[in-house]
Amino acid sequence: MRDITAQGQTVEEAVQNALNELKLERNQVEVEVMDEGKKGIFGLGSRLAMVKVIEKENGTQIATDYILDIAEKMGAKISIDVEEEGKDIKIQISGENLGVLIGKHGQTLNSLQYLTQLIANKQTEQFKNILVNVGDYRERRYETLSGLAKKMGDKAVKTRRAVHLEPMPSFERKIIHAILSENTKVETHSEGRDPYRYIVIKPAK
């Protein structure tokens, strides 16, 4: 984390001077007012305001540190690559003994992703959408979900009855909804509350 002491005619001006120097936005820093300054009379006895501006912890660094710590405790030797685009952070994990980070049907990975995002956002007070992938699991999972969506869509059409899928995280439900949105013979919606929210596929009216 970086910090800087800056001065200005007012506290607000001092803060802005510090932000300009650090090239950061106001919500990325914490401000400690060291001296509110004094206007004086006709310039006599005046004193500049002084602040200490401290950069908040970076959400990406918090996320990667957390994942590295969890992986070490679970016995997985990993390396991490990160891609950032706007509010999206994609964390790609590679290494050894990766299965322990994925778990059955990706449940461990989904929990890791959820907790990583929760901790990073809470500590920085900035919302980031974090996606964690281990090896090519997300790609393989997409193919699995795609096949499941088409199969259950066909079942709903054939039986003329609603089909209920197992609970899954929101980003996986979005995949199902997106794939079946191209099938004019079915309709989809989600029911229940997370983490037990699930998709219902039914014949189109």
Detailed description of the structure:
A probable RNA chaperone. Forms a complex with KhpA which binds to cellular RNA and controls its expression. Plays a role in peptidoglycan (PG) homeostasis and cell length regulation. With 205 residues, this protein is an alpha+beta fold. It folds into three domains: 53 residues, Defensin A-like; 76 residues, 2-Layer Sandwich (GMP Synthetase, Chain A, domain 3); 65 residues, 2-Layer Sandwich (Ribosomal Protein S8, Chain: A, domain 1). The strands form three sheets. A three-stranded antiparallel β-sheet has the order 1-3-2, covered by helices on one side. A three-stranded mixed β-sheet has the order 4-5-6, with helices on one face. Helix 2 packs antiparallel against helix 4. The longest helix is centred in the last third of the chain and has 23 residues. It is elongated and about 90 Å long. 19% of the residues are buried. The mean pLDDT is 92.
